[in-house]
Amino acid sequence: MVGIVLVSHSAKLAAGLQDLVEQLAQGRAHVEAAGGVADGALGTDAAAIAEAIRRADQGEGVAVLMDLGSAVLSAETALDLLPADWRPRVALCDAPMVEGAVAAAVEASLGSPLAAVRRAAEEARELRKL
Questions:
Q1: Which of 4, 13, 66, 127 could form a cystine bridge with 8, CB 3.0-4.6 A?
Q2: 30 belongs to the catalytic site
């Protein structure tokens, strides 16, 4: 099963999106939220993201979706905190966070591989144009 990590500057936003995505996946995708920083303020924490990736990994890889630019930088830093052999199993998705997370959850719940989950998340940007 492909895991999904939701990285947001807001812990509440990440948790709310996690709730939505978990309901859509109906237990067929492991979803983790990595939002905010330890003191509850807005921001991102590379160590917390790395830990969320570890928890989400069920052996089939992890798709990571991020909300804003510096969240991407924190997610990239999180990859550096993981063992080198994990990096090929982690896909940082260039996708709109909500639409991408929904598409990734649906694809992951079908048992699709990481590449297909990533593609679904990234293609979700086209949904915004409809």
A1: 13
A2: no
Rounded to 10 degrees, the C-alpha dihedral 85/88/89/94 comes to 140
Q: Which of 1, 4, 9, 18 is catalytic?
A: 9
Where do the H-state alpha helices sit in 4-56? 11-25, 46-56
Q: What predicted TM-score, i.e. pTM, was given to this entire model?
A: 0.94
Other C-beta atoms lying within 10 Å of the C-beta of residue 85: 7
Handedness of CA 111, 64, 30, 1 (dihedral sign): positive
Contacts of 105 (CB under 8 A, 6+ apart): 4, 21, 22, 24, 25, 29, 31
Cα–Cα distance between 46 and 23 in angstroms, integer? 26
Q: pLDDT (tens digit, 9 = 90+) per residue, 3-30?
A: 999 999 999 999 999 999 999 888 888 9
